Amino acid sequence: MTTREFASLAPNTRTPLIELEKVSKIYKMGAVEVNALQEIRLEIYDGEYVAIMGQSGSGKSTLMHILGCLDVPTSGSYRLSGVDVGRMSESELAEIRNRKIGFVFQQFHLLPRLPAWKNVELPLLYAGEKDHKRRRQMAEASLASVGLTERVNHRPTELSGGQQQRVAIARALVTNPSIILADEPTGNLASAQADEIMTIFESLHQQGRTVVIITHEPDIATRARRLVRIRDGQVIDDEAMVK
Ligand SMILES: Nc1ncnc2c1ncn2[C@@H]1O[C@H](COP(=O)(O)OP(=O)(O)OP(=O)(O)O)[C@@H](O)[C@H]1O
Ligand SMILES: [Mg+2]
């Protein structure tokens, strides 16, 4: 079967990349329980570009943490590429977080004392890449891919917000992950900078990566190809965006 034929298959004949079945998350705070997610069912296929939208407190970050294997559901199952995440060991989960998933957050989470390239090489260090030269080359190539060739030696405080977020994206991409998870990536940016970031996500999608972005802004969400709305921890709508 050619790639084109495979892509044209009805989705239900393929294995989803991400498959949540009745996923619930309850946070216990002493006697109080917060039902952050309630029986979420969600399937995301390889190469999709999905926005998850909802108001503050609707459960978006909780969902992202579960999708990214940073947290586990209270009940329900999560299969990633057909494999039950609940049955994976901590080291298998760490391996997946490191190699398969790239994270981008609202607050960039860069180390302030390190130049851009040293921030970007960190996931390679964690992955055990020992060749210093190779790490630096890969970090610089990743920074070049987000248009920061001229800024590899700048520290975060010497960069604009949009540039800091691009460093964070370069860091997420340096291990060549197939999935990008972004939680309010434009939340701290002015609209021109937000636009640049969204252009990068669009190109990541064009390259065939799976992109999941979380936002509460309709302007941002409608740039994806599919829009999943959540309210009170439940999926209330799931629609394809006509482009
Ligand atoms: N670690 C936690 N312990 C207890 N309750 C939590 C925890 N994290 C989140 N919650 C609660 O779970 C619900 C969902 O929170 P979550 O952070 O997923 O929302 P969100 O949609 O990301 O909101 P925002 O847009 O403000 O980031 C909220 O009611 C929140 O107060
Ligand atoms: Mg959040």
Task: Give the overall shape.
Answer: globular
Rg, alpha carbons: 18 Å
Number-wise, the strands total 10
Rounded average pLDDT:
93
* CATH homologous superfamily descriptor: P-loop containing nucleotide triphosphate hydrolases
Q: How many strands, which pairing sense, and closed or not: the largest β-sheet?
A: 6 strands, mixed
Q: Low-confidence segments, ≥5 residues, pLDDT <50?
A: none
Tally the helices.
8
The assigned structural class equals alpha/beta
Could you spell the SSE succession in H and E letters?
Answer: HEEEHEEHEHHHEHEHEE
**Helicity level:** 25-40%
What gap, in angstroms, lies between the N and C termini?
27 Å
What strand line-up does the widest sheet have? 6-7-8-3-9-10
Instruction: Please name the CATH architecture.
Output: 3-Layer(aba) Sandwich
**How much beta, percentage-wise?**
25-35%
In the CATH hierarchy, the third-tier topology is known as Rossmann fold
Supply the CATH class.
Alpha Beta
List of distinct ligands in this structure? adenosine-5'-triphosphate, magnesium ion
Overall tally of domains: 1
Description:
With 243 residues, the chain is α/β, with parallel strands linked by helices. The chain has one domain: Rossmann fold. It contains eight helices and ten strands. The chain has helices spanning 3-8, 60-67, 90-99, 116-126, 132-145, 161-173, 191-206, 218-221, and strands at residues 18-29, 32-44, 49-53, 75-80, 83-84, 101-105, 179-183, 210-215, 226-231, 234-240. It has a six-stranded mixed beta sheet with strand order 6-7-8-3-9-10, sandwiched between helices. Helix 4 crosses helix 5 (132-145), helix 4 runs parallel beside helix 6 and helix 6 packs parallel to helix 7. The two termini are 27 Å apart. Bound molecules: adenosine-5'-triphosphate and magnesium ion.
